[in-house]
Design goal:
By secondary structure, the chain is an alpha/beta fold. It has eleven helices and 13 strands. The structure holds oxa(dethia)-CoA.
Length: 332
């Protein structure tokens, strides 16, 4: 019988990015932009871009192996794999199944989850529920995206923003009072057209015409998404904290989705957090979509910025439109 009282938490984390660096100076040669514009409007200095040989499952597998090593766990101990992505290797099979095979986790159930840049926190909420209920014990949760593959490299309003990356976490039972405390998830499908790829699905299947019309790349109403993000990041973080009886004043480290430094700073102001409690690495990686939060979390942990018992808040927003915040009592 499932035991409904188990506390679930992150017991291992890892990340992976491609080696190739694309700088703002490189982008100045591709589109009508400047290093100064990109830095002041987004905070981004450079991003990582996979080679032609790299696919999402490659980054996901590397991040998964690092997370297993950090948990001191073998792949055979996993009993579920969830990969949050919107840029999987191909529509079929799932990227999660590819990762399952490549890390050598025999017969482990695996599926992909799509919630844009909020995907990792959505997947974390599924994993937390399944561990807490007793249905599963050790779940690998990966957030990975290679938005470079769906970027229109002639569109200066989007191509300067994105990068490729992955992060992974192992979610397992942890001690009382530790681990994942609460979530605030949401979506507003009425605003889905603010951030979309029009073709390649069942509405508008891939054809010579869709390719010719450039309908396989990301289209974004940046200013509208910006306004939405500034509001929702603060609201979602506060709601997740309220659900576990805490306030922003209790937060030790805020790890937001790394889309734009101005969005992060606005959310931090709303939560009245000092700079040292806000983790930022957007300058190095740009927006890595579902990879962004676990990549930031891994870097924060490896830099010694988060330790056992700290209250960590994750918050993301993205295509859907979706949003997702989580409050965690760090358990590693
Ligand atoms: O994970 C979720 C994904 N999405 C996001 O997080 C995006 C959220 N939005 C943003 O981050 C910002 O809206 C952007 C960084 C995309 C844009 O910044 P902004 O301050 O909102 O600029 P804007 O869109 O209002 O554009 C200002 C000007 C425009 O020129 P005009 O119309 O004022 O003459 C743009 O055409 O900047 C121009 N512009 C550029 N100039 C140089 C747009 N992109 C560029 C560029 N280089 N790359």
């Amino acid at each position: 019988m499932p035991n409904n009282t188990r506390q679930a938490g992150i017991v291992g984390i890892g990340s992976a990015v491609p080696d190739k660096i694309l700088t703002n100076a490189d982008l100045e040669k591709l589109v009508d932009t400047t290093d100064e514009w990109i830095k002041t409007r987004s905070g981004i200095c450079e991003r990582r871009i996979g080679t032609d040989q790299t696919a999402a499952s490659d980054l996901a597998t590397e991040a998964a192996r690092a997370a297993l090593a950090s948990a001191g766990m073998g792949a055979e101990a996993l009993d579920l794999i969830i990969v949050a992505t919107v840029t999987g290797d191909s529509p079929i099979p799932s990227t999660a199944s590819l990762v399952q095979h490549r890390i050598g986790s025999p017969r482990t159930p695996a599926f992909d989850l799509s919630a844009g840049c909020s995907g990792f926190v959505y997947a974390l909420s599924v994993a937390r529920g399944l561990v807490a209920s007793g249905l599963h014990t050790n779940i690998l949760v990966v957030g990975v995206d290679m938005l470079s593959r769906v970027t229109n490299w002639q569109d200066r309003t989007t191509c300067v923003l994105f990068g490729d990356g992955a992060g992974a976490a192992i979610v397992s039972p942890v001690g009382e009072g530790e681990g994942i405390l609460s979530f605030c998830l949401g979506s507003d499908g009425s605003r889905g057209d603010l951030l979309r790829i029009r073709a390649g699905g069942s509405r508008l299947p891939a054809s010579a015409q869709t390719v010719q019309d450039g309908l396989h790349s990301i289209e974004m109403s940046g200013r509208e998404v910006f306004k939405f993000a500034v509001r929702i990041m603060g609201d979602a973080a506060v709601e997740a904290l309220e659900k576990c009886g805490l306030t922003p004043a209790d937060v030790d480290l805020f790890i937001p989705h790394q889309a734009n430094i101005r969005i992060i700073e606005a959310a931090a102001r709303r939560l009245e957090l000092p700079d040292e409690k806000v983790f930022i690495n957007v300058q190095k990686y740009g927006n890595t979509s579902a990879g962004s939060i676990p990549l930031a979390m891994d870097e924060a942990y490896r830099s010694g910025l988060v330790k056992k018992g700290d209250l960590v808040v994750l918050v993301g927003f993205g295509a859907g439109l979706t949003w997702a915040a989580a409050a965690l009592r760090w358990a590693m």
